[in-house]
């Protein structure tokens, strides 16, 4: 078995990357997504890239896939009919939520519609206390009655979330057992398995969402597995998680909520991998696709993780790559609001009908159409000539929908669209950097996705970022990320205690129980000892605080020699996050976390031959391209990226074209091709 394949499904295109483990050769393929059935484009893409390169199914050693099924099912409220079983008095917790709200001063804003209606939420009269002791025993007959009622209502899935089950899961286990006895075909999630940590609201929403999407994701994963088998492959496919790791199809059935932000996480993993090879430690990823732009900050080659994300306005407390998304992509639609102001997004033309210039029935102007009008994007064809572009249709759409109503020229309208979408994306980068205590000027902006390289240099300049990197295959970097991601599972245990010498044994016992869980999972995944890594984190806070900071515990065991070092790390992180620290103050540990990793074989990128500074041999044509810096169209050299060689260098204005992306180099920017064929763009001067 020779080949590894990664497949990423986006809102507009599906990307496929195939790696030859013997030669190091990488092949890429891109085709339109099929929103009505994502697996259709996946199967077609795999078949096509194998056929194009004469690869047989039995030569496939590895297959990984990033999915949006969980996210879409939640956002579109298309999950299955789900029932909640909870402790007496907590039936309405999922609607009561928290005091915090998205629109603080809007008294008329509607709360998100609950994913589980009230008649499907049932209470049982039991209670476990905060310390795990049983205050009131569970009544099996009462549980049986509740399960029968929900079954008669047509419930397909159950979410069991009892008070303090993270401390003592006994009652939840009994409820799960009864459900499986009386409704064996139903899907069941219990909070002590999905999220064994305190804060009952987040535990309930996470468990409920896991059950809500469970059958949907399970059905999709089964179809994906079946399609792989029908293609003649014997490999067991992996699914990407929101934390950037991979998990088997079987684990996906049990914990589908872990795939909630599967796609964006793969791109972050890919960016972290290629920048480490290039010797760059601190980056901000800039993944602009057809529907949205995702950004993430990576420091010391380690992506930031969070457990405070929300999907469809419901908090999901599972570890996720800390990606901030904004509705700004190549397919984002430009429109005029009631006040006559030009807006871009968040609505997208998607894969169908797509931008007007794609000629697939789209009628509303998009960011892609503006780039075509300004000749930043090839006005004749893209995807290496496989897709024709209709420049005239793009001009007409912008003129009729934007330019005429606003009383401006088509060129001004197109320029306005680009300016607004750039501003929206720059705002997202400030969220992950400036608003969290980081100076973006100290980072390299890494642009990928189908449209990232079109906008990165200008967005970087607006933020004061002087270095931009465009990987060798920017349009399919998410698919590359799937080839380099490790197999991963996260574990958590709540046990609130003072972080001091008296509790060292308690803390080590808590960590060891999670390490044992991780090793048991790695055993089931058939990961050898040499490929295993266990990482430990502690969620810590000052006594009296309501939220915690996650601190890496890079020791086999906590002891009297290193406990002060861990405290010092907490103080330092607290000062960076909040601007102050209280050395000597009482510190608590709240959650113990471990990450179990199964390391995958790496993808080695071939170094390109040194071609010297002269890049003239890669010039394929010249066309007039609009640049804001020049306030008009200027003659611009168009380069074929495949013809560029290591150490080639040239100044903008320029455009670099390749099958999966287009790179725009504004005036005043210098391009250098590094040894791994990354395009390094540095801002040098104004013109």
Automatic annotation (TrEMBL):
The Acetophenone carboxylase-like C-terminal domain covers which part of the protein?
Answer: 502-676
Q: Which residues form the Hydantoinase A/oxoprolinase domain?
A: 203-490
| Top-level taxon | Bacteria
Domain (Hydantoinase/oxoprolinase N-terminal) spans 4-181
Task: Name one matching Pfam family.
Answer: Hydant_A_C
The record, for InterPro entries, names: ACX-like_C, ATPase_NBD, Hydant_A_N, Hydantoinase_A, Oxoprolinase-like
Q: Secretion signal: which residues?
A: none
Q: Which PANTHER family match?
A: 5-OXOPROLINASE RELATED, HYPOTHETICAL 5-OXOPROLINASE (EUROFUNG)-RELATED
Q: Any idea what this protein is called?
A: Hydantoinase/oxoprolinase family protein
């Amino acid at each position: 078995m020779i080949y590894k394949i990664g497949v990423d499904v986006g809102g507009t295109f599906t990307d496929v990357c195939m790696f030859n483990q013997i030669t190091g050769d990488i092949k890429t393929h891109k085709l339109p997504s099929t929103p009505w059935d994502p697996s259709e484009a996946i199967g077609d893409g795999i078949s096509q890239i194998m056929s194009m390169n004469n690869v047989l199914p039995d030569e496939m050693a590895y297959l990984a896939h990033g999915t949006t099924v969980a996210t879409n099912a939640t956002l579109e409220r298309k999950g299955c009919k789900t029932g909640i079983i909870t402790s007496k008095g907590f039936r309405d917790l999922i609607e009561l939520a928290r005091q915090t709200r998205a629109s603080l001063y809007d008294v008329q804003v509607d709360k998100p519609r609950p994913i589980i209606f009230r008649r499907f939420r049932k209470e049982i009269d039991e209670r476990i206390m905060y310390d795990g002791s049983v205050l009131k025993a569970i009544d099996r007959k009462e549980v049986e009655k509740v399960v029968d009622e929900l079954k008669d209502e047509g419930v397909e899935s159950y979410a069991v979330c009892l008070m303090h089950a993270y401390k003592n899961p006994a009652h939840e286990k009994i409820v799960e057992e009864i459900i499986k006895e009386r409704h064996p075909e139903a899907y069941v999630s219990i909070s002590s398995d999905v999220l064994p940590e305190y804060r009952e609201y987040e535990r309930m929403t996470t468990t409920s969402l896991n059950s809500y999407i469970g059958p949907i994701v399970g059905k999709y994963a089964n179809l994906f597995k079946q399609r792989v088998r029908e293609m003649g492959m014997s490999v067991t496919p992996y699914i990407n998680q929101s934390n950037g790791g991979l998990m088997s199809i079987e684990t996906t059935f049990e914990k589908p909520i872990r795939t909630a932000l599967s796609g964006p996480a793969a791109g972050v993993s890919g960016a972290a991998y290629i920048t480490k090879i290039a010797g760059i430690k601190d980056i901000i990823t800039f993944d602009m696709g057809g529907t949205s732009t995702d950004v993430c900050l990576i420091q010391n080659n380690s992506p930031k993780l969070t457990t405070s994300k929300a999907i469809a306005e419901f908090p999901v407390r599972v570890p996720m790559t800390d990606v901030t998304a904004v509705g700004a992509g190549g397919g984002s639609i430009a429109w005029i609001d009631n006040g006559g102001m030009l807006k871009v997004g968040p609505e997208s033309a998607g894969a169908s009908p797509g931008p007007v210039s794609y000629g697939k029935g789209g009628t509303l102007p998009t960011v892609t159409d503006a780039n075509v009008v300004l000749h930043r994007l090839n006005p004749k064809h893209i995807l290496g000539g496989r897709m024709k572009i209709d420049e005239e249709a793009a001009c007409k759409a912008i003129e009729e929908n934007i330019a005429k109503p606003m009383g401006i020229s088509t060129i001004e309208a197109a320029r306005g669209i680009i300016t607004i979408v750039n501003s929206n994306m720059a705002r997202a980068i400030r969220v992950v950097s400036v608003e969290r205590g980081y100076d973006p000027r100290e980072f390299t902006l890494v642009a990928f996705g189908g449209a990232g390289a079109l906008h990165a240099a200008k967005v970087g300049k607006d933020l004061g970022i002087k270095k931009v990197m465009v990987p060798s295959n920017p349009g399919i970097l998410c698919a590359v990320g799937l080839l380099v991601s490790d197999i991963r599972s996260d574990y958590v245990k709540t046990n609130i205690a003072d972080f001091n010498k008296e509790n060292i044994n308690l803390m080590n016992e808590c960590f060891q129980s999670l390490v044992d869980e991780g090793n048991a999972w790695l055993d089931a995944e058939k990961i050898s000892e040499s490929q295993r890594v266990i990482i430990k984190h502690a969620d810590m806070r000052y006594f009296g605080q309501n939220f915690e900071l996650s601190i890496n515990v890079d020791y086999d065991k906590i002891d009297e020699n290193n406990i002060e070092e861990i405290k010092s790390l907490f103080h330092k992180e607290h000062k960076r996050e909040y601007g102050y620290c209280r050395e000597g103050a009482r510190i608590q540990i709240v959650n113990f976390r471990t990450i179990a990793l199964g390391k995958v074989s790496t993808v080695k990128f071939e170094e390109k031959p040194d071609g010297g500074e002269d890049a003239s041999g890669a010039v394929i044509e010249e066309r007039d391209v609009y640049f804001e810096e020049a306030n008009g169209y200027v003659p611009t050299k168009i380069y074929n990226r495949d013809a560029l060689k290591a150490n080639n260098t040239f100044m903008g204005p320029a455009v670099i074209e390749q099958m999966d992306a287009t790179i725009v180099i504004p005036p005043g920017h210098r391009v250098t091709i590094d040894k791994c064929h990354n395009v390094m763009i540095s801002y040098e001067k104004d013109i």
